[in-house]
Every structure is written in C-alpha cells, then in structure tokens.
Amino acid sequence: MVSRRNLRSVWLTLTGTLTGLVWGVTQAYACGLCDDPQHFISGHLATPTSTATTDIAEPGYNLGSFNIIIRPNATLSNDAAALAAFERAATNWERYISDPITVTIDAGFESLGGGILGSTRPRAFAYNYDFLRGQVVTDATDEGANDTVATRVPTSAQFSNALLPSGFSLSGGLAGTKANLKALGITDLDETQGDSDGIINFSTNFAFDYDNTDNMNTNLTDFETVATHEIGHLLGFISAVDTVDTSASGSISPYTLDLFRFADNVAGSDPGSLPQFMTNARSLLTGVEAITDDVDSEFRMSTGRNKGDGRQASHWKDGDLTAGNVIGVMDPTLAAGQVVEISAADLRAFDLIGYDINYQPVPAPPAAISLGIGGLVGLLGVGARKLRTRLRRDKKK
C-alpha cells in the first residue's frame, strides 16, 4: 500500500467580544501534510500582525486580474523552483476566479517540526450573522439562476435550529476568511486590518517535487498540489465543525461554507427543494455523515479527526474512504507522487460562498501548468446528486 500523507488542521477557540459588526480574529488554522497518520500539527493564533512571523524579504508577485500576491520570505525567494510552483498554484485559482480583489499571501519555508510538510494560517473574522448573510445574498443576486440557492441561505432565526452537540451554542456570528470577506464585498479590511490575508509556510525538513510535468517522482510530494490545496483553505474552505471536534463545549460561529452543510439522508436536514434548503437544519455535528448541498448537487464532507471519520471537517470526504471517489483538491489526503486537479466540486463550493467563478477558465499562460477540468459546464449542468471528479492519476492502493 502506498503511504498517504494527511492534510490536517488544528483549531483554537473563538475569542473576542462582539463590537458592532465585527469580532476579532476568530480561529487559527494550520493545515499540513503529515508522514505519520497519527501525527497532529500545532496551530498558532493568528493576529492582525501575523505577517511578522514570516520574514518578508522580497516584493510580491502579482499573478493575474483576480490578484494573488505572493510575498516570499528570503528562503522561498531564493528557491526558484519552489516559487515557480507556488506561482502556478496561485494561477490555478486565478484562472477561474474573477472577483476584482487582491489576496495577499505571506509565504515561505520554515522548520515546522516533526512530520509537518506545510501550514496555512488564514486571517479570519466573524461578523453579525444577519449582516454577513446579507452580503452572501447580495453577492449571489446578480449571478444568475445557478446561484439562486445562495440567495436562500437561512436568516439567523432560521439557522438557530442547527444541529449541535450538547455543550455547544451559536454565537450569533457568521465567519469567513479575510479573502472570502473581500469577495463578499467588504472593502475596508486591508485598510483596517492590514493587507495580509494569511500565511502559508512549507517545511524545510522535507523534499518536494516542484515540477509535476516531468515524470513525477513517486517518492516525493507534489508541491503544486499542496500549495493549491492550502490556498483553497485561505480563500475560505473552512468549517466550524473542526472547532466542535477539538473542543468539549463552547460558542460557535459557523463559516460561510457551513451555510451549505447538512446531515446526509437525515429528515429535516438533507434538503430536496429550495424551501427546505432555507429552513432545514444545518449540521455542525461530528461523526455524522455530512454533505455540502446546493439542492441540485451534493458533495460528501469529512466529519472530524477526533470524533468523526478521522479526517478534519474542513475537507471533502477522503477518497480513500469512498472507494476512490476523489471529489477535488480539497480532499484531506495526498499520496506521494499524486497530482490533484481543481475540480467542478471545488469551484462550486467557492461559487456558493461568494466568489465569482468563470466556469470556462482563462487560458493558462505558456509557462503555467493547467489544472483545469474538461467538460466542466456539462458536469455542472447535469445536476447529479453525486457529482465527482477524479485525480489526474488513479490513486494507488
């Protein structure tokens, strides 16, 4: 059996006092690849001055009309192959996203500790639930029939029936990463909170393959896939279920992705119509089969590292647990030598949480590697309940 490395994250409890619309930084998120399936990585509390933890030595690299600016530390700046792979990972997202915003990522190499390949710490904030829900609705209003479902996300009163374990309650807030909030039209965050949208670091203790087009080394981890995955978390692929999974009790602010999270095949939760979508209970439970559902299509989710299926909830359901049905690049595990593409499901999730998605991707520049998916419009148009995409190569067992 080929050893697989797990993409893991650790969450810290929500802190801060509600003042007007915005809370403080909500949670620190660290996602990484581990050699040992039992290994946990350590989280670090993000702060408005979190860029100080990365040695920013070089100017940013502006990569497209939807701008991702990479600010490399000295080590990354001096590693041309790694920086080029990171740029390709950013371009993978830029080819599909058209929001007129700039996302700034402080990035580099650091010694991250035993077993840790990479770490992502997005800036994240929670707003008054109905205020941020209004931003989601407004953003979706001009997106056409495909996004009608996002205009039906529940009000705070309707969300109050969310499924939560004993000892947990809803805070009255709704959270998003700073990048996601900018995509939803909140325009003053760079001015008031600093321009960094988060930090992505990779370990100096491991070897990566930086070019997945030249006979990928089956003993190495594909850097571009890992970077693409980590950027996805920074853009907003996060669930508050991971907070539930790592806490005994507390007050929970769901994330924008949780607006679409339901318990699979559970009466009163799994929606079959737009009216049911608006009023059925969202699921913030661990250990209960969960889906991201837009009524026309649904995608299975991981259910918790500690109290669920062994995978952290801010990911699709692991393909290894579903007979190889890999949903997309936000799968929680990656085999050595594997390259994972951005999928239709990945793009649909980001569409739902407020990004403007071009389902006909911008052509990749000659030096960039296309991770687009053929037949994407057809896949989305079918409206199948179990829409799936596959790895570029079949996973080895």
Tags for this model:
single chain, 397 residues, alpha/beta, 5-stranded mixed sheet, 3-stranded antiparallel sheet, 11 helices
Shape: globular
Give the number of helices. Answer: 11
Could you tell me the radius of gyration in angstroms? 19 Å
Strand fraction equals 15-25%
SSE pattern, N- to C-terminal: EEEEEHHEEEHHEEHHEEEHHEEHEEEHH
Q: How would you describe this structure to a colleague?
A:
The protein is 22% helix and 20% strand. The termini are close together. The strands form six sheets. The protein has a five-stranded mixed β-sheet with strand order 4-5-6-11-7. It is globular, with a radius of gyration of 19 Å. The protein has 397 residues and is of the alpha/beta class. The model is unreliable at 7-28, 32-62 and 366-397 (pLDDT under 50). It has one domain. The protein is built from eleven helices and 18 strands.
Write a brief caption for the model.
The protein has eleven helices and 18 strands.
Chain-wise SSE layout:
Elements: E1 4-11, E2 22-25, E3 29-34, E4 61-62, E5 67-72, H1 74-77, H2 80-94, E6 102-110, E7 118-122, E8 124-128, H3 129-141, H4 156-159, E9 168-170, E10 173-177, H5 178-183, H6 189-193, E11 198-203, E12 208-209, E13 221-222, H7 223-235, H8 241-245, E14 250-252, E15 261-263, H9 274-279, E16 290-293, E17 298-301, E18 333-335, H10 344-352, H11 376-382
Parallel strand pairs: 5-6, 6-11, 9-14, 12-13
Antiparallel strand pairs: 1-3, 1-18, 2-8, 4-5, 7-11, 8-10, 15-16, 16-17
